[in-house]
Amino acid sequence: MTEHDDLAERFEEHRTHLRAVAYRMLGSLSEVDDAVQEAWLRLSRADATGIDNLGGWLTTVVARVCLDMLRSRQSRREEPFIPDAPEPAATGTRGSSPEEEALLADSVGLALLVVLDRLTPAERLAFVLHDMFAVPFEEIAPIVGRSAEAARQLASRARRRVRGGAEAPDPDLARQRQVVDAFLAALRGGDFEGLLAVLDPDLVVRADMVPSGAPAETRGAAVWAKQAVAFGHLAQLVRPALVNGAVGVVMAPRGRLSRALTFKIANGKITEIEVIGDPARLGELDVSIAD
Q1: How far is 139 from 211, CA to CA, in rounded Å?
Q2: Which residues of 109-138 are buried (b: 16+ CB within 10 A; e: fewer)?
Q3: Domain range 3-162, CATH class
Q4: Where are the alpha helices (DSSP H) in 27-132?
Q5: What is the β-pairing status of strands 238-243 and 246-251?
Q6: Does the pTM of the predicted model rise above 0.70?
Q7: Does the pLDDT value for residue 138 go beyond 50?
Q8: Please, what sign has the CA dihedral across residues 158, 161, 167, 172?
Q9: For residues 88 and 78, is the Cβ–Cβ distance under 8 A?
Q10: Are 69 and 10 contacting, i.e. CB atoms less than 8 angstroms apart?
Q11: Could you write out the DSSP letters of every residue in 194-230?
Q12: Cβ distance 265 to 203 under 8 Å?
């Protein structure tokens, strides 16, 4: 085995960890592969004999690469977001399915990815490395160009935003979650009767972005449920989240919020649904994890 082959083998031992770090930093499988590939290129050009802790060295490199990618992404925020095709988790081959993308998002938490996307790049890096991978602030500090104490403050600020700043959960949230979970289960299963069971007969649904000719407001549970079950497959892409302090659902490819549904619930029934897709309104929503 050549020295290059030995180095490649050692790198592969860390690939799963590096992809986990990069995915939580970037929320995009294609960008994850780019970041991990860049780490390999930098390692192959470095003097590996001088690296005592290869895992720590590679984690730092991936973190730096991801930080640069996040900063570049932030500077392009005005560009319209178009979800890319998902990439495979580890093999480096093409063709993974949306289901695989959804599974990976679930392993992190889709709502968490939405919240992480709203942090500054430095906050996101400090939170991900410290809170998710136990990297000491002394090692995070040089990556973000701050002192260890400043890195600690970045993570603390991010932590408050991720948790929604709530000191104690609203006791009504558990009941809201039960109703929303039943709603999602019926929608995903194309269960018309199950959907009617959680909808108030006088349901009102409003949407701020609709196809040309489609109504912006629909009234009546039966009328809306017939339309909804026809598109039940799209419900596989949404997950519960706290939206403005109440249980709602979000659709967020690559962690970028593209749709949010908010609910008004009374007596165990959904009385109103608002479908929000306007980017300006989405940017004003307070989204945090629901669990």
Answers
A1: 50
A2: bbbbbbbbbbbbbbbbbbbbbbeeeebebe
A3: mainly alpha
A4: 29-45, 54-75, 98-108, 110-117, 121-127
A5: antiparallel
A6: no
A7: yes
A8: negative
A9: no
A10: no
A11: HHHHHEEEEEEEEESS--TTS-SEEE-HHHHHHHHHH
A12: no
Rounded distance between C-alpha atoms, residue 134 and residue 149, angstroms:
16
- Domain borders along the chain are 3-162, 173-288
Which two three-digit tokens encode residue 257?
A: 């919020």
| Cβ neighbour number for residue 72 with a 10 Å cutoff | 10
Q: What is the pLDDT of residues 242-277, one digit of tens each?
A: 888 889 999 887 778 899 999 999 888 999 999 999
Residue 115 confidence class, pLDDT cut points 50, 70, 90: confident
State the Rg of the chain over Cα.
Answer: 22
Q: For domain 173-288, which architecture applies? A: Roll (3.10)
Residue recorded with tokens 């992190």? 108
**Block residue for tokens 């890096």:** 125
Q: Which two tokens stand for residue 71?
A: 């900063």
Q: Cβ(24)–Cβ(128) under 8 Å? A: yes
Using alpha carbons, select from 102, 167, 157, 93 the residue that is nearest to residue 126. Answer: 157
Mind giving me the DSSP string for 165-195?
T-SS--TTHHHHHHHHHHHHHHHHTT-HHHH
pLDDT score for 41: 94
